[in-house]
Amino acid sequence: MKKIIYLDNAATTPVDKEVAKVANEFMIKSYGNASTLYRLGRNARAAVESARERIADFINASSEEIFFTSGGTESDNLALMGIALANPDKKHIITSVIEHPAVMETCKQLEKQGYKVDYIPVDKDGIVNVEEIKTKIREDNTLIVSVMHVNNEIGTIQPIEEIAGICRLKKVLFHTDAVQSFGKLNIDASKIDLLSASGHKINAPKGIGFLYVRKGVKIHPILRGGGQEKKIRSGTENVSGIVALGKAVELAEKRMKNAAKIKKLQEKLINELLKIRGTRLNGSRDKRIYTNVNVSFDDAEGEAIVLLLDEKGICCSTGSACSSTSLKTSPVLRAIGLGDEESHGSLRITLGWQNTEREIGYAIKEIKKAVENLRRIYGK
User: Fold this and answer.
1) Do the bridges between strand 173-177 and strand 292-297 make them parallel or antiparallel, or are there none, so unpaired?
2) Shared-domain flag, residues 73 and 135
3) Which of 219, 254, 289 is the last residue of a domain?
4) Are 217 and 137 found together in one domain?
5) What average pLDDT is seen over the chain?
6) Are residues 113 and 249 in the same domain?
7) pLDDT greater than 90 at residue 325
8) What local confidence, expressed as pLDDT, does residue 320 receive?
């Protein structure tokens, strides 16, 4: 079997060996239920609270503001549905047109329940129109503004501090989906009301995440059960996942200091791929997370490129992982002005800490060959 060159880190990341070791310890030996009173349970509780404190410190929050969930999707749902349940008198929501389905589908569900949702457009670089958000806020009826920090498809970084400032001034809640930025960019959660994050994007296992809820913000649970997580998220604590996430955060904090290494690989990818005839970079070049490259090729299907690269041991995608099996045009690419044909020629490459310059050089060579071969087949 060929060596795998994994370039789809926005979809998920390989679990770090140190993280896996910690998780394994709490699955095999320290397996107690964190809600029990005997020593095995008390040890599990202590580990959960230690991880909670580490995560809180990482985003300038307090531990009582961190609520563990199963991941980003649940955190997004809890943020929007939980706030709606807690504040039934306000029926207006503002979000962007390029949000993750976990936010978009929740907003659509709330629309069916009588909520009015304004979907704010983005410019050709994929940056949300902040002034339009400002003008759409209804101080007497707007429940929440939800804008993601980093887009999962094109990697654009939204001005969330500016948006949060506007919301704070107008006394409207602000939520950000930080699944793609947590553990990669510095985040000061004290300026935000709610923040969603997921462990499997930063080398922790799948099935663990958290929602930050600023102290004083009213929120109701959307799951009913034993009242864990201070009655906000019922369900037996995923102790192994929680401690693994805490360890992953510890490692991410160290790795962020070497972000220039990945930035260099990103620049090499962008510069070399743009040398291919009929290639465009999707999303802002400057306001872009250092792990993301999204390009479109004229006269070459993205799905076909992905399959050809897979034969060479290279993993990447045509869009977000949540829609990779759909042949529909990406709403994100449509929002920045791409047509159907341009969208179907897109390729998303997302880098991780494990990637090397040699791997990127090989990937560039094989992407160029794949595009050339497809164009030759179709006489382009």
Assistant:
1) unpaired
2) yes
3) 254
4) yes
5) 95
6) yes
7) no
8) 46
**Which residue is it, tokens 């060996």?**
17
The answer on pLDDT for 326 being more than 80 is no
Q: Each residue of 42-53: pLDDT tens digit?
A: 999 999 999 999
Report the SS3 class of residue 358: helix
* Paired sense of beta strands 92-96 and 66-69, if any: unpaired
123 shares its domain with 155: yes
Q: Please determine, for residue 380, whether its predicted confidence score (pLDDT) is greater than 80.
A: no
In angstroms, rounded to a whole number, what is the distance separating the alpha carbons of residues 36 and 39?
8
Look at residue 260 in the predicted model and tell me its pLDDT.
Answer: 96
What type of residue is 37? L
Residues identified as active-site: 322
What domain range is 100 assigned to?
Answer: 17-254
pLDDT tens profile 109-136: 999 999 999 999 999 999 999 999 999 9
Q: Are residues 140 and 225 in the same domain?
A: yes
CATH number at residue 122: 3.40.640.10
Q: Do 215 and 292 fall within a single domain?
A: no
Q: Which of 188, 184, 97 is closest to 147 using CA atoms?
A: 97
Helices (H) and strands (E) in the chain, counts: 12, 12
The model's pTM: 0.95
The torsion angles phi and psi of 71, rounded to 5 degrees, stand at 150, -170
Q: Rounded distance, CA 347 to CA 317, Å?
A: 6
pLDDT (tens digit per residue) in 181-190: 999 999 999 9
Judged by DSSP in three states, 96 sits in strand
Residues 221 and 294 in one domain: no
Cβ 248 vs Cβ 204: under 8 Å: yes
- Among 31-35, 90-94, 340-344, top mean pLDDT goes to 90-94
Own/partner contacts of 130-137, CB < 8 Å, gap of 24 or more, are: 130/159, 130/162, 130/163, 130/166, 133/94, 133/163, 133/166, 134/166, 136/94, 137/94, 137/166, 137/167, 137/170, 137/172
Please provide the distance, in angstroms rounded to a whole number, between the alpha carbons at the two ends of the chain: 33
Q: Which of 199, 234, 254 is the last residue of a domain?
A: 254
For residue 275, the surrounding DSSP H or E stretch is none
User: How many separate domains does the chain show?
Assistant: 2
Q: Does residue 218 share a domain with residue 119? A: yes
Average pLDDT of the segment spanning 307-312: 97
pLDDT average, residue stretch 365-371: 97
